[in-house]
Amino acid sequence: MPGKVADFLRAAELADVGRAALDQGVIVRRGQGFTLRVSAVPAVHLGLLARCQPLDGGHGVPAVPAQRKARREYENRVSALAPIGP
């Protein structure tokens, strides 16, 4: 997961499973930022993705383009892991 998403989620109130996944993640430096490698089942990633929805803006909250892009990249990675369906 991109570092901007990880930073946002660390500040959010998460369930124990999500918090443990973030705490056990491995930081990999990427140029100016970082990526957090999180080993978790796809359901946990889908839950984390849902929690970072505010990064897209809306409801009177301005969207920061870099955060919106980071969330979109994470969404693409998660959807590649687990096809969304019934």
Provide an overview of this structure.
This protein has 86 residues and is mainly alpha-helical. It is built from four helices and two strands. The chain has one domain (3-81). The model has no long low-confidence stretch (mean pLDDT 87).
Please compute the radius of gyration using only Cα atoms. Answer: 13 Å
Strand order of the largest sheet: 1-2
State the helicity in percent bands: 40-55%
* Biggest β-sheet description: 2 strands, antiparallel
Number of β-strand runs: 2
Tell me the count of domains: 1
- Topology as a string of helices (H) and strands (E): HHEEHH
Distance between the termini: 25 Å
Q: Give the overall shape.
A: globular
Report the oligomer: single chain
> Which structural class do the helices and strands define?
mainly alpha
Number of helices: 4
Low-confidence stretches: none
* Average pLDDT score: 87
| Strand proportion | 5-15%
Give a brief description.
The protein is mostly helical and 86 residues long. The chain contains 4 helices and 2 strands, in the order H-H-E-E-H-H.
